[in-house]
Amino acid sequence: MTTSLDNSSGSAAEEPAAEQPLSIARPEPRSAEESQAALRELAQQARREMDVLGHNHDWVPEQPDGAYNVLIIGAGQAGLGAAFALQRHRIGGVKVLEAGPESSIGCWDRYARMHTLRSPKNMKGIELDIPSLHTQRWFEAKYGPEAWAATNLLPRLDWHDYLAWYRETTGADVDFHTWVSAVHAPTEPEGMFTVTAEQGATEGQKTTVTYRARRIIFALGLIGGGSTFLPPAVKALPDHVRAHTEDAIDFAALKGKKIVVLGGGASGFDNASAALEAGAGEVEMHVRRSEIPRQNSLRWMEFPGMQEHFYDLSDEQKWEFSLFNGGLPQPPTQAAVWRAYAQPNFHMKTDTRWASAEYVEDGSAKPVRITTQDGRVVEADYVISATGYTVDLSLRPELAEFLPDIALWSDEFAPAADGHPLGKCPYLGEGFQFQAKSGADPEAQEYIPRLFHFSTGARASHAVAGNQLSGIYGGLTRMSRRIAKDITRENWPAMFEEFKAFDYEEVGSIGEHRPGVDVPYPQGPRY
Ligand SMILES: Cc1cc2nc3c(=O)[nH]c(=O)nc-3n(C[C@H](O)[C@H](O)[C@H](O)COP(=O)(O)OP(=O)(O)OC[C@H]3O[C@@H](n4cnc5c(N)ncnc54)[C@H](O)[C@@H]3O)c2cc1C
User: Are 444 and 434 spatial neighbours (Cβ–Cβ below 8 Å)?
Assistant: First the structure.
């Protein structure tokens, strides 16, 4: 298959260096009044389109005692998109719980420290076929159509602001400052899950609250399949001299310091740049490979067959693909590389593997001493570990009660039982639902598929994890269809009884129309 990308440009070597932007500034907005008026009008237009294309009446019964039909944990792009996808199916009783404040959405103004998204700007996504909800329309309303045409990759903070507008326009019902600590299984057949959360903006205000729901979507972001990954040598260092890229890092406190960034992916480059731009004295990046990878396999995957139908392949095909794709490293973006190299105190060391790292308490100027496998000793003030994430459901506290019953690839597909890390991915169903292990008791067989994993562990079953923009349209479509299907099946007996008792007369009078007695009779010729 040939893949062509609208955003592609010539190779870096062909471009005159002076014309390369070293940082991508946010486009100049239209005047505040003009862009706000345009965004208000766009929101109204989007709501009109939702009405035109929407189902015309509710159909899902309310749950008893204030329980929700669906509880979504996490209000990033995945959780908000899930809430909207359910709304498109006219499924009410949906609540989203979000640990963070209303002002911050997902990772985008926290640990995502790049200037732009890496995803192409022109993909189908969380607008779910409502044109006026698409990022392009939002961007054009805010900056003008010329700015969209001139923008290659979407500025990160614009994506954040778009998500805030999307959240408001789609009317997602979110409880903020609500961190879910545990989820409990139903205590009676076909019953509700109970969710425990700590709610409150500050420590002193926090209270424990509970929610009950028939189904739960876990949309926790990159940690959702397990956790951040810290190599043991980094983990052994005390907290005040090390961080993972997902942590809140006080870059101002690193002014003048020597920092070692471990890992040469996108986050490694972004954090190196963020540190140097905040005044760090020097950043040395340590990369195990001999070269920084250049190919991005995600770009190949962005076509409907892959995004929406990978799940429909056989287990053998899915596993073969996952093994191959799992061995392909993700490169940094071109802009991230240029941004770091624009700083004279940035140095990258390839072929550099750590043998050990120790915290030195002998009063030396630099408290971290790293020894590489080839015997080099590097002293540093601080280590930022750009080492990604691990998929291991046993690390998720909210899944603890369900873990023994959740089917993993290693349980269900013999070749995945050889200890390969991908075997730890959950063996998900067509709509991202967890599935119960073959030996699970009948209660668990019933309720486990009412839990949905919309996060990193989905990749073995669905290839693009669903929550990432490369696969989010297909993921949301599949998950919401599956939930609508389940609701129909489980309510069918009551629905059929309702049909049998259905009493709606469309024809009120048999005979000639009686003006003033019957409803008006339209005189149009085609009536
Ligand atoms: C440097 C960098 C560049 C990236 N570039 C791209 C890109 O270009 N395109 C792309 O698609 N992806 C990109 N990503 C990946 C990106 O992080 C994910 O695709 C995206 O965040 C997924 O959205 P999400 O809603 O699943 O997760 P998030 O945006 O992380 O949102 C998850 C939400 O869940 C909340 N939450 C977590 N635990 C709980 C809990 N227990 N209780 C309540 N709430 C909870 C969090 O507070 C958070 O708001 C990038 C990531 C990084 C770090």
Answer: no
**Ligand 1 near 332 CB (within 6 A):** no
Phi, psi of 342 (to 5 degrees): -70, -15
d(C-alpha 300, C-alpha 294), whole Å: 13
CA of 259 to the centre of ligand 1 (A): 26
Residue 100 alpha carbon, nearest atom of ligand 1: 47
Return the residue whose CA atom lies nearest to atom 30 of ligand 1.
221
Question: Do 149 and 122 touch, CB atoms closer than 8 A?
Answer: no
467 C-beta closer than 6 A to ligand 1: yes
Report CA(222)–ligand 1 centroid distance (Å): 6
DSSP-assigned states of every residue in 106-155: TTTTTT---SB-SS-TT---TTTT-GGGSHHHHHHHHH-HHHHHH-SS-B
Residue 392 CA to ligand 1 center (angstroms) comes to: 17
Q: Which tokens in the block code for residue 14?
A: 């062909």
Q: Is the shortest distance between the CB of 246 and ligand 1 below 6 Å?
A: no
Give the residue among 436, 432, 430, 373 at the shortest CA–CA distance from 402: 436
CA of residue 180 to ligand 1 center, whole Å = 16
For residue 292, give the 3-state DSSP assignment.
Answer: coil
Ranges of the chain with pLDDT below 50 = 1-23
* pLDDT for the residue numbered 524: 66
User: Which of 178, 220, 223 has the most ligand 1 atoms within 8 A of CB, as the residue to mutate?
Assistant: 220
pLDDT at 519: 87
Instruction: Note the pLDDT of residue 361.
Output: 84
Out of 111, 222, 459, mutate this one to test ligand 1's pocket (max ligand atoms within 8 Å of CB): namely 222
Quick one: pLDDT at residue 274?
Answer: 97
Instruction: Return d(Cα 284, Cα 278) in angstroms, integer.
Output: 15
Q: What span, in angstroms and rounded, lies between the C-alpha atoms of 126 and 422?
A: 27
CATH numbers and ranges of domains, the chain: 32-225+391-487 (3.50.50.60), 230-293+329-387 (3.50.50.60)
Cα of 465 from ligand 1 centre, angstroms: 12
* pLDDT reported for residue 499: 95
Rounded to whole angstroms, the Cα distance separating 381 from 236 reads 15
431 lines ligand 1 (CB under 6 A): no
- With a 6 Å cutoff on the Cβ, whether 183 touches ligand 1 is no
Q: Note the pLDDT of residue 7.
A: 31
Q: Measure the CA dihedral 403/85/43/175, to 10°.
A: -30
Nearest CA residue ID for atom 37, ligand 1: 220
Per-residue confidence (pLDDT) for residue 275, from 0 to 100:
98
Note the pLDDT of residue 19. Answer: 43
State the pLDDT at residue 25: 57
What letters, b where the CB count within 10 A reaches 16 and e where it falls short, cover 6-17? eeeeeeeeeeee
Residues 457-516 pLDDT 10s:
999 999 987 889 999 999 999 999 999 999 999 999 999 999 999 998 888 889 999 989
pTM over 0.85? The answer is yes
